[in-house]
Design goal:
The protein is built from ten helices and twelve strands. By secondary structure, it is an alpha+beta fold. The protein folds into three domains: 124 residues, Alpha-Beta Plaits (2-Layer Sandwich), CATH 3.30.70; 65 residues, Alpha-Beta Complex (Molybdopterin biosynthesis moea protein, domain 2), CATH 3.90.105; 75 residues, no CATH class. The termini are far apart. Helix 1 packs across helix 3. 45% of the residues lie in helices and 17% in strands.
Protein backbone atom coordinates (compact mmCIF):
# COMPACT_ATOMS: atom_id res chain seq x y z
CA UNK A 1 0.00 0.00 0.00
CA UNK A 2 1.45 3.35 -1.04
CA UNK A 3 2.28 6.05 1.43
CA UNK A 4 -0.21 8.35 -0.23
CA UNK A 5 -3.01 6.47 1.48
CA UNK A 6 -1.61 7.36 4.91
CA UNK A 7 -1.71 10.60 6.83
CA UNK A 8 2.03 11.16 6.73
CA UNK A 9 4.02 14.40 6.74
CA UNK A 10 4.47 16.00 3.35
CA UNK A 11 8.26 15.80 3.58
CA UNK A 12 8.07 12.00 3.58
CA UNK A 13 5.84 12.00 0.54
CA UNK A 14 8.26 14.39 -1.16
CA UNK A 15 11.21 12.11 -0.32
CA UNK A 16 9.50 9.14 -1.96
CA UNK A 17 8.70 11.17 -5.05
CA UNK A 18 12.29 12.44 -5.30
CA UNK A 19 13.66 8.90 -5.12
CA UNK A 20 11.27 7.76 -7.84
CA UNK A 21 12.16 10.70 -10.07
CA UNK A 22 15.91 10.21 -9.65
CA UNK A 23 15.52 6.48 -10.36
CA UNK A 24 13.56 7.08 -13.54
CA UNK A 25 16.03 9.70 -14.79
CA UNK A 26 19.30 7.84 -14.04
CA UNK A 27 21.02 5.10 -16.00
CA UNK A 28 22.39 3.61 -12.80
CA UNK A 29 20.65 3.21 -9.45
CA UNK A 30 22.51 1.68 -6.54
CA UNK A 31 22.96 1.34 -2.82
CA UNK A 32 26.10 2.29 -0.93
CA UNK A 33 27.04 1.36 2.64
CA UNK A 34 27.79 4.34 4.90
CA UNK A 35 28.72 2.32 7.98
CA UNK A 36 31.72 3.66 9.86
CA UNK A 37 32.28 6.75 7.71
CA UNK A 38 32.89 9.86 9.83
CA UNK A 39 30.93 12.96 8.84
CA UNK A 40 34.06 14.82 7.71
CA UNK A 41 35.17 12.04 5.35
CA UNK A 42 31.65 11.69 4.00
CA UNK A 43 31.55 15.39 3.16
CA UNK A 44 34.89 15.12 1.35
CA UNK A 45 33.70 12.10 -0.65
CA UNK A 46 30.51 13.88 -1.67
CA UNK A 47 32.57 16.88 -2.75
CA UNK A 48 34.91 14.69 -4.83
CA UNK A 49 31.96 13.00 -6.56
CA UNK A 50 29.90 16.15 -7.11
CA UNK A 51 28.75 16.56 -10.69
CA UNK A 52 29.09 12.84 -11.44
CA UNK A 53 26.72 11.19 -8.98
CA UNK A 54 23.83 12.05 -6.70
CA UNK A 55 24.10 10.61 -3.21
CA UNK A 56 20.73 10.46 -1.46
CA UNK A 57 20.56 9.73 2.26
CA UNK A 58 17.13 9.10 3.76
CA UNK A 59 15.23 6.60 5.88
CA UNK A 60 15.23 2.97 4.82
CA UNK A 61 11.44 2.83 5.14
CA UNK A 62 11.09 5.59 2.56
CA UNK A 63 13.57 3.91 0.22
CA UNK A 64 11.61 0.65 0.45
CA UNK A 65 8.33 2.44 -0.23
CA UNK A 66 9.75 4.25 -3.27
CA UNK A 67 11.02 1.05 -4.87
CA UNK A 68 7.83 -0.79 -4.02
CA UNK A 69 5.91 1.86 -5.94
CA UNK A 70 8.39 1.75 -8.83
CA UNK A 71 7.93 -2.00 -9.14
CA UNK A 72 9.39 -4.07 -12.00
CA UNK A 73 13.04 -5.17 -11.94
CA UNK A 74 14.25 -1.94 -10.38
CA UNK A 75 11.87 -2.50 -7.48
CA UNK A 76 14.10 -5.38 -6.37
CA UNK A 77 16.73 -2.87 -5.24
CA UNK A 78 14.94 -2.69 -1.90
CA UNK A 79 15.83 -6.35 -1.31
CA UNK A 80 19.48 -5.33 -0.89
CA UNK A 81 18.74 -2.58 1.62
CA UNK A 82 20.54 -3.19 4.88
CA UNK A 83 21.91 -1.12 7.77
CA UNK A 84 23.23 2.35 6.99
CA UNK A 85 22.52 2.44 3.28
CA UNK A 86 22.19 5.42 0.98
CA UNK A 87 21.06 5.68 -2.61
CA UNK A 88 23.42 6.57 -5.41
CA UNK A 89 22.38 7.72 -8.88
CA UNK A 90 24.69 8.10 -11.88
CA UNK A 91 24.86 8.00 -15.66
CA UNK A 92 27.93 5.78 -16.01
CA UNK A 93 28.51 2.04 -16.07
CA UNK A 94 28.75 0.28 -12.68
CA UNK A 95 32.35 -0.87 -13.13
CA UNK A 96 33.57 2.67 -13.69
CA UNK A 97 31.52 3.93 -10.74
CA UNK A 98 32.82 1.17 -8.47
CA UNK A 99 36.41 2.09 -9.34
CA UNK A 100 35.70 5.77 -8.69
CA UNK A 101 34.25 5.01 -5.27
CA UNK A 102 37.21 2.81 -4.38
CA UNK A 103 39.55 5.70 -5.20
CA UNK A 104 37.75 7.97 -2.70
CA UNK A 105 38.46 5.60 0.19
CA UNK A 106 40.89 6.62 2.91
CA UNK A 107 42.81 4.70 5.57
CA UNK A 108 41.81 5.08 9.23
CA UNK A 109 42.89 3.62 12.54
CA UNK A 110 41.11 0.43 13.51
CA UNK A 111 38.74 0.58 16.46
CA UNK A 112 37.98 -2.33 18.81
CA UNK A 113 35.59 -4.63 17.01
CA UNK A 114 36.75 -3.69 13.50
CA UNK A 115 37.73 -6.49 11.11
CA UNK A 116 40.99 -5.94 9.23
CA UNK A 117 40.70 -6.45 5.45
CA UNK A 118 44.31 -7.62 4.99
CA UNK A 119 47.32 -8.85 6.95
CA UNK A 120 48.91 -6.27 9.24
CA UNK A 121 52.67 -6.82 9.32
CA UNK A 122 54.83 -4.91 11.78
CA UNK A 123 58.42 -4.73 10.62
CA UNK A 124 61.55 -5.26 12.66
CA UNK A 125 63.51 -2.12 13.52
CA UNK A 126 63.73 1.00 15.67
CA UNK A 127 60.74 3.11 16.70
CA UNK A 128 60.47 6.74 17.73
CA UNK A 129 59.57 5.81 21.33
CA UNK A 130 61.78 6.44 24.31
CA UNK A 131 62.03 3.76 27.02
CA UNK A 132 58.84 3.57 29.08
CA UNK A 133 55.53 1.76 29.46
CA UNK A 134 55.27 1.37 25.70
CA UNK A 135 57.62 -1.64 25.88
CA UNK A 136 55.20 -3.52 28.11
CA UNK A 137 52.22 -2.49 25.98
CA UNK A 138 53.88 -3.81 22.83
CA UNK A 139 54.85 -7.07 24.48
CA UNK A 140 51.36 -7.57 25.94
CA UNK A 141 49.92 -7.10 22.47
CA UNK A 142 52.26 -9.79 21.15
CA UNK A 143 54.96 -7.61 19.57
CA UNK A 144 58.51 -8.59 20.63
CA UNK A 145 60.24 -5.38 21.70
CA UNK A 146 63.25 -4.20 23.67
CA UNK A 147 65.32 -1.13 24.49
CA UNK A 148 68.45 -0.44 22.48
CA UNK A 149 70.58 2.71 22.44
CA UNK A 150 67.95 4.67 24.31
CA UNK A 151 65.13 3.79 21.91
CA UNK A 152 62.43 1.14 21.81
CA UNK A 153 63.00 -1.37 19.02
CA UNK A 154 60.87 -4.13 17.54
CA UNK A 155 63.02 -7.23 17.61
CA UNK A 156 61.47 -9.17 14.73
CA UNK A 157 59.03 -8.74 11.88
CA UNK A 158 55.67 -10.10 12.90
CA UNK A 159 52.25 -10.61 11.34
CA UNK A 160 50.33 -8.73 13.99
CA UNK A 161 46.87 -9.39 12.55
CA UNK A 162 45.67 -11.61 9.75
CA UNK A 163 43.03 -10.65 7.21
CA UNK A 164 39.62 -11.21 8.77
CA UNK A 165 40.81 -10.85 12.38
CA UNK A 166 38.75 -8.74 14.78
CA UNK A 167 40.75 -6.01 16.51
CA UNK A 168 40.66 -5.87 20.33
CA UNK A 169 41.36 -2.81 22.49
CA UNK A 170 45.05 -3.57 23.15
CA UNK A 171 45.69 -4.12 19.46
CA UNK A 172 43.82 -0.96 18.48
CA UNK A 173 45.84 1.09 20.99
CA UNK A 174 49.13 -0.31 19.69
CA UNK A 175 48.20 0.41 16.06
CA UNK A 176 47.45 4.02 16.94
CA UNK A 177 50.76 4.39 18.78
CA UNK A 178 52.63 2.89 15.81
CA UNK A 179 50.67 5.11 13.40
CA UNK A 180 49.42 2.14 11.40
CA UNK A 181 46.07 2.74 9.67
CA UNK A 182 44.46 -0.51 8.57
CA UNK A 183 40.81 0.16 7.83
CA UNK A 184 39.59 1.34 4.43
CA UNK A 185 36.79 3.84 4.93
CA UNK A 186 34.61 4.85 2.02
CA UNK A 187 31.46 4.27 0.04
CA UNK A 188 30.94 0.56 -0.63
CA UNK A 189 28.75 -0.02 -3.67
CA UNK A 190 26.55 -2.89 -2.47
CA UNK A 191 24.39 -3.26 -5.56
CA UNK A 192 23.92 -1.44 -8.85
CA UNK A 193 20.97 -1.68 -11.23
CA UNK A 194 22.09 -0.78 -14.75
CA UNK A 195 20.63 -1.51 -18.20
CA UNK A 196 18.15 -3.99 -16.76
CA UNK A 197 20.72 -6.04 -14.79
CA UNK A 198 21.91 -6.17 -11.20
CA UNK A 199 25.63 -6.00 -10.39
CA UNK A 200 26.74 -7.09 -6.94
CA UNK A 201 29.97 -6.00 -5.27
CA UNK A 202 31.66 -9.36 -5.88
CA UNK A 203 31.12 -8.90 -9.64
CA UNK A 204 32.29 -5.29 -9.71
CA UNK A 205 35.50 -5.82 -7.70
CA UNK A 206 37.75 -6.71 -10.64
CA UNK A 207 41.51 -7.06 -10.23
CA UNK A 208 42.45 -5.11 -13.37
CA UNK A 209 46.06 -6.32 -13.37
CA UNK A 210 45.01 -9.96 -13.14
CA UNK A 211 42.35 -9.41 -15.80
CA UNK A 212 44.89 -7.82 -18.16
CA UNK A 213 47.37 -10.65 -17.57
CA UNK A 214 44.66 -13.23 -18.29
CA UNK A 215 43.84 -11.52 -21.59
CA UNK A 216 47.53 -11.42 -22.56
CA UNK A 217 47.95 -15.11 -21.66
CA UNK A 218 44.82 -16.08 -23.60
CA UNK A 219 46.02 -14.15 -26.66
CA UNK A 220 49.42 -15.87 -26.54
CA UNK A 221 47.82 -19.29 -26.16
CA UNK A 222 45.45 -18.62 -29.07
CA UNK A 223 48.40 -17.47 -31.22
CA UNK A 224 50.41 -20.61 -30.41
CA UNK A 225 47.43 -22.86 -31.07
CA UNK A 226 46.85 -21.21 -34.45
CA UNK A 227 50.51 -21.59 -35.45
CA UNK A 228 50.88 -25.19 -34.25
CA UNK A 229 47.59 -26.25 -35.84
CA UNK A 230 48.46 -24.36 -39.06
CA UNK A 231 45.27 -22.29 -38.94
CA UNK A 232 46.16 -19.20 -40.97
CA UNK A 233 44.95 -15.79 -39.80
CA UNK A 234 46.14 -12.28 -40.56
CA UNK A 235 48.12 -12.35 -37.30
CA UNK A 236 49.65 -15.82 -37.55
CA UNK A 237 50.25 -16.41 -41.28
CA UNK A 238 53.87 -15.16 -41.19
CA UNK A 239 54.68 -17.32 -38.16
CA UNK A 240 53.07 -20.38 -39.80
CA UNK A 241 55.07 -19.91 -43.02
CA UNK A 242 58.26 -19.31 -41.03
CA UNK A 243 57.66 -22.48 -38.98
CA UNK A 244 56.92 -24.54 -42.09
CA UNK A 245 60.02 -23.18 -43.85
CA UNK A 246 62.23 -24.05 -40.90
CA UNK A 247 60.81 -27.56 -40.62
CA UNK A 248 61.26 -28.13 -44.38
CA UNK A 249 64.87 -26.89 -44.20
CA UNK A 250 65.66 -29.19 -41.25
CA UNK A 251 64.08 -32.16 -43.04
CA UNK A 252 66.11 -31.43 -46.18
CA UNK A 253 69.35 -31.28 -44.18
CA UNK A 254 68.59 -34.50 -42.23
CA UNK A 255 67.67 -36.36 -45.41
CA UNK A 256 70.66 -34.86 -47.34
CA UNK A 257 68.48 -33.47 -50.09
CA UNK A 258 70.98 -31.54 -52.20
CA UNK A 259 69.36 -28.30 -53.30
CA UNK A 260 70.91 -24.91 -53.93
CA UNK A 261 69.92 -23.40 -50.57
CA UNK A 262 70.70 -26.52 -48.51
CA UNK A 263 74.01 -27.74 -49.90
CA UNK A 264 76.16 -25.55 -47.65
CA UNK A 265 74.17 -26.62 -44.55
CA UNK A 266 74.49 -30.31 -45.46
CA UNK A 267 78.27 -29.99 -46.01
CA UNK A 268 78.63 -28.07 -42.76
CA UNK A 269 76.74 -30.76 -40.89
CA UNK A 270 78.94 -33.45 -42.40
CA UNK A 271 82.08 -31.53 -41.39
CA UNK A 272 80.87 -31.21 -37.80
CA UNK A 273 80.11 -34.91 -37.61
CA UNK A 274 83.55 -35.75 -39.06
CA UNK A 275 85.29 -33.58 -36.45
CA UNK A 276 83.26 -35.15 -33.69
CA UNK A 277 84.24 -38.67 -34.84
CA UNK A 278 87.91 -37.64 -35.05
CA UNK A 279 87.73 -36.32 -31.51
CA UNK A 280 86.25 -39.55 -30.19
CA UNK A 281 88.90 -41.58 -31.98
CA UNK A 282 91.74 -39.45 -30.55
CA UNK A 283 90.36 -39.78 -27.03
CA UNK A 284 90.14 -43.54 -27.35
CA UNK A 285 93.73 -43.71 -28.70
CA UNK A 286 95.03 -41.80 -25.66
Amino acid sequence: MALYTHNLPQWKLDEVEEIKTLSNNSLLVGLVDLHGIPAKQLQEMRRDLRGRVVLKMTRNTLIREAFTELGGDIGSVKGYLDGQSALIFADENPFKLFKSLEQTKTKMFAKPGDVVPEDVVISKGPTSFKPGPIVGELQQAGIPSAIEKGKVIIRETKTFLKAGDTVDKKQADVLVKLDIKTIDVGLDLQIAFYAGSFYEQSTLAIDETAYYNNVVTAAAQAFNLSVNAAIPTATTIEAIIGKATGEARNLGVEAAVYTGDLIEMIIGRAQRETLAIQGIAENNAN
